[in-house]
Specification:
Structural class: alpha/beta
Strand order of the largest sheet: 6-7-8-3-9-10
Strand content: 25-35%
Oligomer: single chain
CATH topology of the largest domain: Rossmann fold
CATH architecture of the largest domain: 3-Layer(aba) Sandwich
Length: 262
């Protein structure tokens, strides 16, 4: 039986503002099994990115703790890989040198880091662009480079915050399939934030639905679709039923229309 890799234990977050205390997260409990792929969905402003910042050690929660492999990692930086929606590639570094940046930060010599990275560029569709600069790359290629850089940071837990949000629809579908291949090959534990319900279901073992602020988990939905996932599964009754359930939950958190509030 798989063990718990990441545990978010009773985490709440409050911020002091000129208008008073802002309650961002309310008693979040979330257990992610080793090697699994889970997604967070919810209305804008519900605290998904705040959860990521807390797990990454960038913010200290007002209450609760974060455990990785059973060890309290609250406010500890460097225990997880973290990729934002923007690729944040350095324009003065080639694609290869961008991908090895995390390894260099960890003290790996550049020659060794390059030797580890180059076979992956060939395997994951970036061959021929090893010495290209970010300005010469398409949006999809830039995201591939950023994902490889995050995975090569050599942490077991990877946080992906809407990495495909800025891509066109066709590129986004290709990137989802590419990401699943990468996840299967690397065996990482992935926590994924998206606003796209179909994307969450297609990628995940579990989908956590968050309610409006203060952010809280209102449902955990197991995705019992077979792997490897084929695009055709999105047209199956099981997939459509999961999508309808997620949308119903999200709709229940939407603010009332003006006419309804009158």
């Amino acid at each position: 039986m798989a063990s718990t890799k990441l545990l978010i234990d009773d985490v709440s977050m409050k911020f002091a503002t000129p208008a008073g205390v802002f309650h961002a997260l309310d008693h979040i409990d979330l257990a992610v099994l080793r090697g699994s792929f889970v997604s967070l969905i919810g209305p804008s402003g519900c605290g998904k990115s705040t959860i990521f910042n807390i797990v990454a050690g960038l913010q200290e929660p007002s209450e609760g703790r974060v455990l990785i492999d059973g060890v309290d990692s609250t406010s500890t930086i460097g225990r997880v890989g973290y990729m934002l929606q923007k690729d944040l590639l350095l324009p003065w570094r080639t694609l290869t040198d961008n991908i090895i940046l995390g390894m260099e930060i960890q003290g790996v010599k550049r020659a060794e880091a390059r030797a580890r990275a180059l076979p992956l560029l060939r395997r994951y569709g970036l061959a021929g662009f090893e010495n290209a600069y970010p300005r010469a790359l398409s949006g999809g290629m830039r995201q591939r480079a950023a994902l490889l850089r995050t995975l090569l940071f050599d942490t077991d837990v990877v946080l992906l915050d809407e990495p495909f949000g800025a891509l066109d629809a066709q590129t986004r579908l290709r990137m989802q399939e590419w990401l699943l291949q990468l996840w299967e090959d690397f065996g990482k534990t992935v926590v994924f934030v998206t606003h796209d319900v179909e994307e969450a279901i297609f990628l995940s073992d579990e989908v956590y639905v968050m309610g409006a602020r203060p952010g809280r988990i209102i449902a955990t939905i197991a995705v019992a679709l077979p792997r490897p996932r084929l695009r055709a599964c999105a047209a199956t009754p099981d997939f459509m039923a999961l999508k309808e359930r997620c949308l119903d939950l999200l709709h229940s958190q939407a603010p009332p229309d003006i006419e309804d509030a009158a």
